[in-house]
Amino acid sequence: MHAVILAGGKGVRLRPYTTALPKPLVPIGDRHAILEIVMRQLAGAGFTSCTLAIGHLGHIIRAYVGDGSQWGLRVDYTTEESPLGTMGPLLTMTDRLPERFLVMNGDVLTDLDFGDVLRDHTASGAPLTIATYPRRVSIDFGVLTTEADRVVAFTEKPSMDYRVSMGVYGVSREALGRYTPGLPLGFDELVLDLLEAGTPPRAYDFDGYWLDIGRPDDYDRANAEFAVRRDMLIKGV
Q1: Which residues pair with 180 in a beta bridge?
Q2: DSSP per-residue codes, 195-219
Q3: Reported pTM
Q4: What pLDDT is stored for residue 233 in this prediction?
Q5: Rounded to a whole number, what is the distance in angstroms from the first to the last CA of the chain?
Q6: In this structure, are residues 98 and 2 in contact, taking their beta carbons and an 8 Å threshold?
Q7: Which CATH superfamily is domain 2-131+163-233 in?
Q8: In sequence order, what DSSP letters do the residues of 138-192 get, joined into one string?
């Protein structure tokens, strides 16, 4: 079981926390970096190896993680010299990836079972599996439906329910075969191409705990909640 962790972003939305540290290494609680929590979770879920796709401040991530042996993982690296999008870094390493593997952002805080995502993906035969999470969006205005110059419906401050991508994916190598290594490939482009080809991604629905540590508000919430969620997130530590 192999995982690829995307850890090359600049973390612009999380400044000033990421001025001197790459986003996956910002601390949660008083002891653990986000990336450490992820590595412990992967090892606990049965993963034995991991590739870190690094870029901005990547030398700090290398120094922190090393070969991964402190968590019982074999870790190697690929360096993103220029922005390649979410899926672009995978194209540069397909020759050393298994047929099916997990891909995840390096700033996800969740109690999702990563091993079950990969097993579900493998059993399904889908080219791509997307872990999804429920979100409700509230609109603070009265919403009008119009036809020509007439209002035909009105809803006062509606809420809309969606399922969003958690930044965790099961990927099959075959899904990447049509793309050119070294060129950017976004998650959106891959999904739209699969839909157009009639090979839709599989959804892995999850309703547990999930935070995407992308904004200062999310980071503050993660730290505020960590004391009560620590044992759930990193078992046996």
Answers
A1: none
A2: HHTT-PPEEEE--S-EEE--SHHHH
A3: 0.86
A4: 82
A5: 22
A6: yes
A7: Spore Coat Polysaccharide Biosynthesis Protein SpsA; Chain A (3.90.550.10)
A8: E--SEEEEEETTEEEEEEES-EEEEEEEEEEEEEEGGGGTTSPTTS---HHHHHH
